[in-house]
């Protein structure tokens, strides 16, 4: 790899690290928020889901603009939104403000995730593309690990509000880095040349043959969401959305509720936070491992293996509750679910061409994040109704199996 593409990839890694911190901070502070504001479990589920709904809309509505105005501009807009949202969350005084600010923050995070995957896909060598996408997305669990560790230190010495203020300031640090050091790829700039060429055709001729050429080039310069449902991409789009949707249901059940479930099982708040930390530590190694294995044995095969293994572990969780190896089980769950889930991002980048790649990734993530909204919300009601940890894990094991099957049936073709 040349030097500058690696710089872009490294920056995107840290942006995903920031995303991981800003998404997971609500999970680590949830027990304190619930106790200080007397928030019920079902209301807390709404807090989790508001941020995830914002992430869904950010991926659906904001990220696709990257295919028109450039990846850099959307990344910059995304990190500004995230920084403002997280910082002001620290000044919220009631549950309604908290829900609104988590929703606002989610919009920026959703746009960032889709757009960084797209730009990394364009800067990466073809043979190692899956690995570099996985590497960048591995920043997410690292951010989650740091969020757990730093949150614990801040909470012990200050309060949960200071956690959001400090994280918001840290996020804002990356605004000038994105502005000065990220540039759109040659692939995107070539699209601008296509646009200029089509405009020249329009000026010099109105001949039918030239009109057809202009129409074709313009459609490439201005891709629409409808491209995802064309004959060539319809089946893959639906399968990708199903895979994302059901993976998100399980993943965000685990991410959002592990610290709370552990504390309700009788462990301390610190151990509850560290249970989420070991989950994300396992996720980091799972994502990197998945990226490497995918280059050797195929992307779809690897995703299927990781997600099916997750299903098996969650189905058998009742045999490990209360044992000394519970934290190890959480680490292995992070390894398998996150490894398989992140593979879906690489899969999305593989099945769509560059002229509407960010739209395809963004809408796949957006459709999937509806599952991310549903997962924590449904878990909140199930837990509030008195269902135990084992039953909840068994219920949320089913979606991972559905996701594995959907992903395995996606057809990968070479896109330029």
Which tags fit this structure?
416 residues, mainly alpha, Growth Hormone, Chain: A
Overall pLDDT confidence: 83
Q: How far apart lie the N and C ends?
A: 19 Å
Number of helices: 18
CATH superfamily placement of the largest domain: MFS general substrate transporter like domains
Ranges where pLDDT stays below 50 over 5 or more residues in a row are: 192-223
Identify the CATH architecture of the largest domain: Up-down Bundle
Q: Give Rg in angstroms.
A: 21 Å
Write down the domain tally: 2
What is shown here, in short?
It is built from 18 helices and no strands.
Give an overview of the whole structure:
The protein has 416 residues and is mainly alpha-helical. It folds into 2 domains: 3-187 and 219-408, Growth Hormone, Chain: A (Up-down Bundle); 190-218. It is built from 18 helices and no strands. It has helices at 3-37, 41-62, 66-69, 71-89, 95-123, 129-137, 139-157, 160-172, 174-181, 186-204, 208-221, 234-264, 269-297, 299-315, 326-351, 357-384, 389-395, 398-408. The model is unreliable at 192-223 (pLDDT under 50).
Outline the secondary-structure elements.
Blueprint: H1 3-37, H2 41-62, H3 66-69, H4 71-89, H5 95-123, H6 129-137, H7 139-157, H8 160-172, H9 174-181, H10 186-204, H11 208-221, H12 234-264, H13 269-297, H14 299-315, H15 326-351, H16 357-384, H17 389-395, H18 398-408
Helix pairs in contact: 1-2, 1-5, 1-6, 1-7, 1-8, 1-9, 1-12, 2-5, 2-16, 4-5, 4-8, 4-9, 5-6, 5-16, 6-13, 6-15, 7-8, 7-13, 10-11, 12-13, 12-15, 12-16, 12-18, 13-14, 13-15, 14-15, 14-18, 15-16
């Amino acid at each position: 790899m040349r030097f500058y593409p690696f710089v872009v990839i490294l920056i995107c890694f840290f942006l995903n690290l920031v995303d991981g911190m800003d998404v997971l901070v609500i999970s680590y502070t949830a027990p304190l928020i619930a106790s200080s504001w007397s928030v019920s479990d079902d209301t807390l589920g709404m807090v989790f889901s508001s941020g995830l709904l914002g992430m869904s809309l950010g991926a659906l509505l904001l990220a696709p603009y990257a295919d028109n105005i450039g990846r850099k501009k959307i990344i910059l807009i995304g990190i500004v939104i995230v920084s403002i949202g997280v910082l002001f969350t620290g000044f919220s005084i009631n549950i309604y403000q908290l829900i609104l600010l988590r929703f606002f923050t989610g919009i920026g995070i959703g746009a960032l995730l889709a757009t960084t995957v797209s730009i990394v896909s364009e800067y990466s060598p073809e043979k190692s593309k899956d690995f570099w996408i996985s590497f960048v997305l591995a920043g997410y669990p690292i951010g989650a690990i740091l969020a757990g560790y730093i949150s614990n230190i801040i909470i012990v010495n200050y309060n949960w509000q200071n956690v959001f203020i400090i994280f918001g300031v840290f996020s804002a640090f990356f605004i000038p880095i994105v502005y000065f050091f990220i540039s759109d790829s040659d692939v995107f700039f070539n699209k601008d040349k296509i646009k200029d060429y089509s405009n020249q055709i329009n000026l010099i001729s109105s001949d039918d043959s030239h009109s057809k050429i202009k129409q074709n080039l313009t459609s490439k310069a201005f891709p629409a969401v409808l491209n995802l449902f064309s004959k060539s991409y319809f089946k893959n789009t639906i399968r990708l959305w199903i895979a994302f949707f059901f993976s998100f249901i399980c993943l965000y059940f685990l991410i959002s509720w592990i610290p709370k479930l552990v504390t309700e099982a009788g462990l301390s708040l610190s151990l509850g936070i560290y249970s989420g930390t070991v989950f994300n530590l396992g996720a980091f190694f799972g994502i990197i491992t998945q990226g490497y294995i995918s280059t050797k044995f195929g992307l779809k095969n690897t995703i299927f293996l990781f997600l099916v293994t997750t299903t098996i572990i969650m189905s058998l969780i009742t045999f490990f509750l209360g044992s000394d190896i519970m934290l190890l089980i959480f680490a292995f769950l992070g390894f398998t679910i996150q490894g398989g889930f992140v593979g879906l991002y690489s899969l999305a980048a593989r099945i769509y061409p560059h002229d509407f790649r960010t739209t395809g990734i963004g809408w796949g993530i957006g459709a999937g994040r509806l599952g991310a909204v549903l997962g924590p919300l449904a878990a909140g009601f199930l837990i509030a109704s008195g269902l135990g940890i084992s039953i909840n894990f068994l219920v949320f094991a089913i979606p991972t199996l559905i996701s594995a099957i959907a992903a395995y049936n996606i057809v990968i073709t070479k896109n330029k």
